[in-house]
Specification:
Blueprint: H1 6-16, E1 19-22, H2 31-41, E2 46-49, E3 59-61, H3 67-73, H4 78-89, H5 93-96, H6 104-108, E4 114-116, E5 124-126, E6 144-145, E7 149-153, E8 163-166, E9 170-171, E10 182-185, H7 193-203, E11 207-213, H8 217-222, H9 233-241, E12 246-248, E13 257-258, E14 263-277, E15 280-281, E16 287-288, E17 291-303, E18 309-311, H10 322-332, H11 336-339, E19 345-348, E20 357-362, H12 377-385, E21 396-401, H13 413-423, E22 430-437, E23 450-458, E24 481-487, E25 490-494, H14 507-514, E26 527-531, H15 534-539, H16 541-550, H17 554-557, E27 558-560, E28 563-566, E29 569-572, E30 576-579, H18 594-604
Parallel strand pairs: 1-2, 3-18, 4-12, 20-21, 21-23, 25-26, 26-30
Antiparallel strand pairs: 2-3, 5-17, 6-9, 7-8, 7-11, 9-10, 10-17, 11-14, 12-13, 14-17, 15-16, 19-20, 22-23, 24-25, 27-30, 28-29
């Protein structure tokens, strides 16, 4: 079945017992988001808030809060959509295995959006200040739309065929935005809207924008999907939703909008006009700071009868958006060998914030006759991965050869890291890219959108056994203490607070490495990580991944015992050292608001609507 609207989906969840309605009044500032995060943590149901303080519209959260619920919402179309994406990438498969793709023709009927003369979305108008003013974290700069579907058309070839639908956060209030007349539009590098914006700037004209909120759930998923070239998001939404997207256009506005959307904000972005946007508690677990981003001049705001405002709250992963990543992998993961020959699997690690850490399994077939396998073909594959769409934003790319362990599951992160550490040769297997682009939300680099990357490529026989206990004769330099084993072969050390000199460098890193020789006992650990709290880092795999890969910039923060540079290639003969301490230029981590948490506790107490859920 395909849901015509968001309300239809909620009715279905209600009948299934997977939706809770909260009639207690809740504050859109901090409370609503705190409730959603707590219920997500408990893997609870979707939440419909009927009484939001200061707002006439209900809001729904945690709609995609479990992967099981997400699959259930799209239960009738997922397999057919997977087949459709396969054929889009490799059309000859349809002739080779026609029986596999029997469901594609029916799905194809829903690909083409349909023009409608009228739709519920055109029934009512409102203002930006009348929309739910949801604030997720204490230091957020204002209210944000957290599940927006930002729609643009190419200025030179307007129309649905060259349209772009993406999820770029929208700031509704705060900073210097004129109330009801201006909102902030934050889009990052490697986003499709940038092509349309650049074309509008070239023509010297404003870029028209429609921001959809709500509507069929397939629209939300389509806005986050990395789709193959030539498959528009609106087409994907029709396929996933099981019905073609009906688009309607007001008589006095040139951009179309979904007839069944709950809300649509219409406006324009003027060439070269920006305003400060942020801060915003983002999905790496830190605040995205204030930066200049495009400002959108609001022309009008539509809403349908009975409109419902969907939202999520992002923060340190995992959060609700984790389900999007899992669904994306299920739909597109099997296509990786087709798009990237020789690559068997890739995995953007959610616990590390997605872009900071990418794992890959490749193939080593260049010289099968060689006596000893070493990284060769997987280096070619690593370069191909870093040239592929949003995977190019990976900061750490760890790649191994399938031939060394054909049974290794790329989603078993602990085992993957153990496999790599058993084989890595730190003198040859590290390959840096310096002064390059990185994820906009990652503040570990040397500037906004700027940082470095490292490819660690390991292939061949096992080189070492990995210790799981701290050597009794381990001696640490002054200031370093509390050694903890995070994983086999990984030692976390509590280091002194980062203290930069006039060049922004902390000399304790070099002093630590100089105090050891490659033959000293500490080198039984191939990887050492400097942290601010070693107990926290070693408490769980999730903590280790989050601390290590969100708080380090490879070119600046990777060091080693017995390090040297030969023909511009850096390596070390002893332990590799990653400095994952918090630095002065890092963004602050997110912290819960105590008052909001107490409100959540009250809702979960006996007699409360969430008793037994949290």
């Amino acid at each position: 079945m395909g849901y015509r609207s968001l309300a239809d989906c909620l009715d279905d969840l209600r009948s299934k017992g997977d939706l809770i309605e909260i009639t207690t009044e809740v504050d859109p500032r901090l409370e609503v988001a705190a409730i959603q995060r707590r219920v997500y943590e408990a893997q609870g149901p979707a939440l419909l808030f009927k009484r939001v303080k200061g707002c006439a519209f209900p809001v729904v959260g945690n709609l995609f809060g479990t992967i099981e619920r997400t699959r259930w919402i799209f239960r009738d179309t997922l397999e057919a959509v997977r087949h459709l994406v396969e054929l889009k990438v490799s059309p000859p498969n349809g002739f080779k295995r026609p029986w596999r793709y029997y469901d594609v023709p029916k799905t194809g009927l829903n690909l083409l959006p349909r023009r409608a003369r009228y739709g519920p979305i055109l029934s009512h108008r409102t203002t930006v200040s009348s929309l739910p003013q949801l604030v997720s974290w204490p230091k957020d700069g204002g209210a944000f739309v957290t599940l927006p579907q930002v729609y643009t058309e190419h200025p030179e070839t307007p129309g649905l065929a060259k349209s772009n639908l993406g999820m770029y956060r929208v700031q509704l209030s705060g900073n210097t935005y004129e109330p009801d007349r201006e909102i902030g539009l934050h889009y990052q590098i490697h986003r499709g809207i940038g092509i349309h914006h650049a074309a509008a700037i070239k023509k010297g004209e404003p870029l028209r924008v429609n921001i959809f909120v709500g509507g069929p759930p397939a629209m939300t998923v389509a806005a986050v999907m990395p789709l193959p070239e030539g498959l528009p998001e609106l087409s994907f939404a029709g396929a996933l939703g099981g019905r073609a997207v009906r688009m309607v256009r007001p008589p006095d506005w040139p951009l179309a909008m979904p007839a069944e959307a709950d809300f649509v904000i219409c406006g324009t972005i003027n060439p070269h006009e920006t305003k400060p946007e942020g801060p915003f508690g983002d999905h790496l677990g830190y605040y995205a700071l204030v930066h200049e981003f495009p400002v959108m001049k609001v022309d009008r705001v539509y809403h349908r009868p009975g409109a419902i405002w969907p939202f999520t709250s992002v923060g340190r992963p995992p959060q609700e958006d984790t389900s999007f990543g899992e669904l994306i992998h299920e739909l597109t993961g099997p296509l990786v060998p087709t798009v990237l020959p020789g690559v068997k699997a890739v995995h953007a690690v959610d616990a590390a914030g997605v872009h900071p850490l990418l794992l890959a399994i490749g193939s080593e077939r260049y010289v099968p006759y060689a006596q000893e396998r070493r990284p060769q073909e997987i280096l070619t594959q690593a370069n191909a991965i870093l040239g592929q769409g949003q995977m190019s934003l990976a900061k750490y790319l760890l790649i191994i050869a399938e031939e060394d362990n054909p049974e290794l599951d790329i989603h078993d992160i602990g085992r993957f890291l153990q496999h790599l550490l058993e084989r890595a040769n730190w003198e040859t297997d590290l390959h840096f890219q310096t002064k390059t682009t990185m994820d906009t939300l990652d503040y570990s680099g040397h500037g906004f959108n700027q940082g470095s990357k490292v490819v660690i490529a390991a292939a061949g026989p096992k080189r070492r056994d990995l210790p799981t206990e701290i050597p009794s004769d381990l001696n640490l330099p002054d200031g370093f203490s509390n050694p903890r084993v995070c994983l086999p072969g990984v030692l976390a050390l509590q280091a002194p607070p980062f203290a930069p000199d006039h060049r922004g460098e902390d000399q304790s890193q070099a002093a630590f490495c100089w105090s050891f020789q490659p033959g000293d006992p500490i080198n039984v650990f191939p990887l050492i990580v400097f942290v601010d709290d070693s107990d926290f880092a070693a408490k769980s795999l999730k903590n280790f991944l989050w601390v290590t890969f969100t708080r380090s910039n490879p070119a600046a923060d990777i060091h080693g015992i017995g390090a040297s540079t030969v023909q511009k290639h850096w390596g070390c003969r002893g332990s590799l050292v990653i400095d994952a301490r918090i630095k002065p230029h890092h963004a602050p981590p997110l912290e819960d608001d105590p008052d909001a948490e107490r409100k959540v506790d009250s809702l979960g107490a006996p007699g409360g609507p969430l008793h037994g859920v949290i």
